[in-house]
Amino acid sequence: MNKNKHFLIAFLMLYTSLLFGQEPFTLNQGFSENKNYVATIPYTEIAGKLIINVSINNQNRKFILDTGAATVISENLFKELHPKVLQTVNVSDSSGKTDSLPIVSLSQVTINSISFKDIPAIVSKESKIIFECFGVDGFIGSNLLRNSAIQFDEKTKTITITDKPNLLNLDKKDAGKMELSSSQSDPYVWIKLKNEKGDVATEKILFDTGDDGFYRLSINAYKHIIKDVNVFEVKAKSTGSFTAGIHGSAEDTENYMINIPLMEVNNMKFKNVITKTTYTDASRFGSGILKYGKITLDYINKKFYVQPFQNTYEISLQKQQWPIDPVLNNDKFVVGIIWDQTLSQKIKKGDEIIKFDNMDYQKMNSCDITKSNKEIDKQKAIIELKDAQTGQIKEVELNKY
């Protein structure tokens, strides 16, 4: 049986790209002191974020492992370490917002027994939604991982890092090609999208473990693909915002709720994939795909492996959706987008969410909401709202569709 979280709270948290001026700067610097290394590391999963132990200056730290971005440290850690500043650049987060931030060089980052030297890292301005809520000092990104292969095993909640991919028991039949970005080695993989008539669209997407979803369709990719072949079934469209990046909530824009009849990922087939468009240039896989098999990113040979659990190569993902999505805005949990337009006379964008079913958000702070994994396995539920215009309290019944 499919279960839905109380709401999908999309925090696409990391810096997806550097915005270069006339002189490009690459984060693909640094190296590992070790050779012929292999280490298996446990991770803690909180709201789809993979948190690992890292040692910097012989101090144990907690970092989020985010393949869809560069290595990042918090402003507090920057003040503590006083690392060498390499450059200041404009950086775009995954909600589309930009900021100017320094890049520093970390003299040594140790993960288990593997030591990485002179790793460039972006210094983030303090963001409660990330550093405080998840209790981390930064992010391990693909620029650090670029000379390794990394395997994710959701069953054992472990990550294996090695410079010898042949040690990972990989099968060629599970492999697909992978491309790395020139600036920070973000991994891109190819998928096929098909409609019921058999029409096919091929898409290059980012593999981003900083995203807690399964597959998120870029609004730009959606518009580009439908010019050639329409493999999508539009369930709903609406204007609003339901994602946030490290620089804050995304601006309101037109979004689509989409059903994809068939998605092929290497040899795996996913049927009836429901997704919602996002603001970034590239679509992405998030950590949600890890529940379906061992995933290996072989940065060395530029290969992407999906080894399904229990040899299950065909999976149906069809599930019903709630008719609204929320967003955290100025520490308030509010309605960000309304998918079912029949609710437009009852619910407004910006209405504060007081309760949803048995979830009392007045008793939760923004961190509690961000990290909540509470699931409501119901077809309908009552939502209690504070009207954004009048301040009146109202109750509305929501039905999945």
UniProtKB/TrEMBL annotation:
Alphabetized UniProt keyword annotations: Hydrolase, Protease, Signal
Database matches in Pfam families: gag-asp_proteas
Keyword Cell inner membrane: no
CDD domains: retropepsin_like_bacteria
GO-annotated biological processes: proteolysis
Recorded GO MF terms: peptidase activity
Domain of life: Bacteria
Signal peptide from the UniProt entry: 1-21
UniProt protein name: Gag-polyprotein putative aspartyl protease
Organism: Chryseobacterium taichungense
Native organism taxonomy: Bacteria, Pseudomonadati, Bacteroidota, Flavobacteriia, Flavobacteriales
